[in-house]
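Weekly sync notes, structure subgroup
Attendees: PM, AL, DS (notes)

Item 1: joint prediction request from the bench team. They want all four components modeled as one assembly rather than separately. Inputs as received:
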Amino acid sequence: MKNAIHTENKRINIWLVEDNLRYRKSMATLINGTKGMRCMHAFVSCEEAIDMFAHDSPPEVILLDIGLPGISGIQGIEKFKKLSPSSLILILTIYDDSDKVFDALCAGASGYLLKDSSPEKIIESIKEVLSGGAPMNMKIAHKVLNLFAQFNKKKSDYRLTDREKEILQHIVAGLTKQQIADELFLSFHTVNTHLKNIYIKLHVHNISGAVSKVYKENIL
Amino acid sequence: MKNAIHTENKRINIWLVEDNLRYRKSMATLINGTKGMRCMHAFVSCEEAIDMFAHDSPPEVILLDIGLPGISGIQGIEKFKKLSPSSLILILTIYDDSDKVFDALCAGASGYLLKDSSPEKIIESIKEVLSGGAPMNMKIAHKVLNLFAQFNKKKSDYRLTDREKEILQHIVAGLTKQQIADELFLSFHTVNTHLKNIYIKLHVHNISGAVSKVYKENIL
DNA sequence: ATATAAATGCCGCAAACATGGTATAGACTG
DNA sequence: CAGTCTATACCATGTTTGCGGCATTTATAT
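Output from the run, pasted for the record:
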């Protein structure tokens, strides 16, 4: 009876974390009314869900709100992921600002839905995340791409020559001027001169300023 | 609540850049066979498409391959965006590795599809990108989320004390030890000692090593 | 209560750095 | 052909760093 052969009959184990009573009830009803899915637990807070990991086997999917009392959904993601790395976390929230999206996805969420999504869309998204996808609201996906575009926008050009870039790379790597000279078969004085010119071009006056600029403005 | 695009008689102006003859033909046929869409030009290379910007009005959507002879699709994105920032670029390629995806999205692509997508999916995606979405293949969306997770990868903990972190921040900002001492109302010797301990904890021996480590491992 | 860690302060010295010069040779540009 | 850019090299000088050691006070933990 408790034979593993009947796994095809087992329903997907889903946990729900949502502080709003009505939404929680309706989501649980939706999930339990769907063939192959089972809302095993519905929690009001992350704390309750965290406790449950000690008493029950972890779920395949966690549907998680962000605006929660106590531990926020964002913080919750990391804790859940630590307790059960294989559990997939699907954010279901009203917040669509870039910061929340960014934080949630960085923390390890596998999908991001807005609460105005249709029940069909939510069920579909649960299936999608289980099959290795990353369900996202259309607007959210757009924000995600914008976040990417922002990353690459700052490539300042300080018109460093190839030699200067080469030397700057070695500086960033932590070598001293003399070590760089040895490495590149140059005189110490040459490296010194190049670095002098680099400082002028980057508008810095020491190594730390140069290295910081390299990383902050994505030079090289 | 009708979208302006649907009320207008004009069809959506789409350009196609794809070096494979058969795929190019079949895509053009697909688009032109879709109500409200028109494949205005089909190019073999980015160069040809770039030339066309001088002779015809820019398209609403560019369907772009990545593996192209001459200017690659990735480089093409930036050039197209410069020539016509409002044109939306939809990548349509066989490459699904994270590097390509990352580069394309950073360059300004508005969507990323794989060539194994069904014709219906492609048409749907064109509509989605026009309505402000970011159509992505399921696997691609998953990779995008993984890229985010990598960004926020666990910041290594070198057990720096608050004071040490504070001093390291000032070092990263480009201040000298003496300037930091003045800034924090400390003795030069204190700053010196702290930095000494920071070096030991970070396993570096100079400022550039420390600053590099701060950025590379997301310390502070 | 007593060990431990953190923050603070001090000394000294060799090494490395920052910055002001000057200068030559080759490459490219108008 | 003259002018600019780049890479190369050298010099001098004062400043800053890296690192060895040592010491005190405070806070935390056992």
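Discussion: Residues 176-178, 192, 195-196, 199, 205-207 of chain B lie near DNA strand D (CB under 10 Å from a C1').
Action: AL to compare against the crosslinking data before next sync.
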